[in-house]
Amino acid sequence: MAELLGALGLAWPRVALYPGGLFALVASHLLMRWLVACDGAPAWPAPRATLLDLVPPLAALTLLPLAPARPFPFGLDLPVALALLEWPRFRVLAARDRAPAEALRDYALLLAAVLALGVATGGMELAGLLRWPEAAPERALLALGAALWLVSLPRLLRAGPGGSAGALRALGLLLVGALPLLGALAAGARDWLPAEAAGWLLPPLAILGAALAAGAACRIPERRIGYIGAAGGVAVLALATYAASTAR
Amino acid sequence: MLVRNASLALLVCLLATGLILAGLARAAPLAAWDGLLRADALSALLVIVVAAHSLVSLAHGAPRPWRVAATAWLVGVAALQGHLAALGGLLVLAGLVQDTGPPEEQPVWRRQVRRLAPLGVLAGLALIGLTGGAWNYGAPLAGAGLNSVSFALILVAALLALDAPALAGERAPASVSPLASGCLYALARLFSLGPWNLGWLLATLLMGGLLALWAAWRAALAPAEQAAPWLGLALGGMAIAGTGLGSPAGLTVTGYVLLLAPPLCLGLERPVAGTRALWLLSAAVPLSGPFVAGWLAIAAATAGGLPALAVALWLAALLMALPPARLALAPVAPSPGDGNGGGEQGLAPAARAWLAAGCSAGLGLGAPLLLMGLLAPVTTQLEGGLTPFGEIVVWPWAGLIAFDTTRQAVATLPSLALAGLMLILSALCWTTLRLLALRER
Predict the structure, then answer these.
(1) DSSP code for A129
(2) Is it true that the peptide bond before B165 is cis, omega within 30 degrees of 0?
(3) How far apart are CA A93 and CA A111, in angstroms?
(4) Which residue in A56, A119, A124 is closest to B286 by CB distance?
């Protein structure tokens, strides 16, 4: 009990400053402006922010394993983070008649990405996405998973609600996609960049890179995204099978 | 009224018996009369589930309450049998006594198939006894008779009892019944006889995964008021997939899903649209019972090294989340009227919805306690027949954590920590929103 209360007490910089709190509000606002510039803004009108809509995505953002925030001992995994982040979108989805087909279409690419990330890291933990694998197949799968995740974002974001909750959701999804990129950067910079400096320098780089990639994905026509998704799905299956066959 | 009250009393007694048994058999199985009567944690779990299902039927105003009580007691007593033939025989008897519902709801052949499904369990268990020569599942060499034919018979019986053939037709399946729970129990009981071979595990996994996904899809397509039976079938699929994982984590999923099915039936069958409490029966609501069930299924599949199954179950959970949410968002129904299906003696629909929501929240937030008190003893006592591919344990003062075979954490649900954090965030957000509102004014 003391451990839980202690962890929650020590988490105030996460709640107030980074990756939740002030950072989340400013970064989500900037991200929405960037998405509007890239034609990737939500098509839905921005509903008035309510407590019910804001808290789940904010909780997911607060618990993301991003340096230089102090580590939180009770980290999330992908299913929980995604459920928290997708809460505002789900409320929109549930109100529509064509929801099942829409959900299947929107989430297909994201689930392919999850499959790739899951096989590459051997689990669903978000912290696992920061570990750049040793073996080549796993490395390729992680990179492919991150790429598919970012490519799936435009469709998901356009279909979601706008407003503060939608912006927090968009930021959360982007940051999850940035985690493998951060892992790759950290692995590349391990030999020449001190760990403390890497903790301050690399996360902004990874977030910026992911935002640029998401912006670029927003400019890809819908139909081409379908082709990319199909090719990516086949590549994920092939690589996952290969990785499973070479696993010790 | 007298029959209804007597049935209610009998079912409350059965529930109390199950809870007492769960406490007594927590450390080790209880046995009497040379093992003819045998109760372990799995038996206790079935007794609790069956009693809960039957109480839900009474809450819905079942027209023949004595049949409901008799079926529950027969399945409950079957759970306490150490003799394989007695176990199967009592399930068959329960099938004959069971009330199959109004004839216009389902074709006759499907109702009869569902009612006679325990015959498959009886045949499978009898084959095990005849082949191996040992009829007591607690006996040292009881597993000698376990073979593919008996396994297939029991698996098919479980699928039929769940009304899986409904997937091929237009009409909705029957609600998850105590009998279906009994057949699932018989399937899980095979772990008492020894480890399953890989083919059986794979067949069960595929059947369960397919059933969960397909039924969840049908649930999402069906009108929200009629989705409950499909959701029950999807939960049954998850339970079968959990059993097919053959690991402590998989069996945890089976147990949790069995416990979750009665509250879902209570809230979603013949519901009253527009009740906000129904949100808590949606897997999309963090820390609700269905959410935790979905997480457990995904975590167990990941821990078992089956990410494709994890993704399939994830999709199933997503689709299953839609009908309760739609019901909660629907315009408020003007009058529940005869929405009780003629059972004016049952609970009012709104009361059922709130009760179900309370149970769902309790199952979700209390999942660590449930795991410690009820589900961990099941997996410990069946450990001899289980594979080491995955385990879900309590994360002290945080929630749940799933480990793979190398004891590496593969999935984490810090439900208590998350609830605490969300409380803090709610306070902060509320203050901020109030300040913004004041400034606007």
Answers:
(1) G
(2) no
(3) 17
(4) A56
Check if the beta carbon of residue B134 is closer than 8 Å to that of residue B83.
no
Residue B340 has pLDDT above 60, yes or no: no
| Number of neighbours of residue B105 by Cβ within 10 angstroms | 15
pTM of the model: 0.94
pLDDT single digits (tens) A146-172: 999 999 999 899 888 888 899 999 999
Phi, psi for residue B428 in degrees, rounded to 5: -65, -45
Residue in the block written with tokens 């309760």: B324
- Asked if B301 has any chain A CB less than 8 Å from its own CB, the reply is no
- What is the radius of gyration, based on Cα positions, of chain A? 18
Is the pLDDT score of B379 beyond 60?
yes
Domain extents in chain B: 2-387
Q: Kindly provide the b/e burial profile for residues B8-30, where b requires at least 16 CB atoms within 10 angstroms of the residue's own CB.
A: bebbeebbebbbebbeebbeebe
Best of A48, A52, A55, A102 to disrupt the B interface by mutation (most B CBs within 10 Å)?
A: A55
Q: Does residue B341 register a pLDDT over 50?
A: no
Q: Is the peptide bond before A56 cis (omega within 30 degrees of 0)?
A: no
**Residues contacting A151, CB < 8 A, separation 6+:** A109, A217, A220, A225, A228, A229, A232
- Which residue segment(s) compose the domain that A212 sits in? 2-65+73-246
Residue count (chain A): 248
Which structure tokens are listed for B40? 């372990």
Burial class (CB in 10 A: 0-12, 13-18, 19+), B266: buried
Question: Closest-CA residue in chain B for A80?
Answer: B413
CA distance B36 to B129: 14
Q: Specify which residues B391 forms β-bridges with.
A: B403
CA distance B82 to chain A (A): 39
* Residue B55 token pair: 């109480």
* Per-residue pLDDT reduced to its tens digit, A53-85: 899 999 999 999 998 888 888 889 999 999 999
| CB contact at 8 A, B105 and B132 | no
- Among partner residues B314, B399, B426, which is closest to A55 by beta-carbon distance? B426
Q: What is the ipTM of this complex?
A: 0.92
Closest Cα of chain A to B417: distance in Å? 7
Q: Residues A61, A84: contact at Cβ < 8 Å?
A: no
Tell me whether B409 touches chain A (CB under 8 Å). yes
DSSP label at residue B81: B
**Residue-wise burial string across B318-336, b where 16 or more C-beta atoms lie within 10 A, e elsewhere:** bbbbbbbbbbbbbeebeeb
Question: In the predicted model, is pLDDT for residue B35 greater than 80?
Answer: no
Q: Across the interface, which of B294, B307, B416 has its CB nearest the CB of A118?
A: B307
Among A88, A94, A95, residue whose Cα is nearest residue A171? A88
If one counts the domains in chain A, the total is 1
* Partner-chain residue, chosen from B284, B319, B421, that has the shortest CB–CB distance to A8: B421
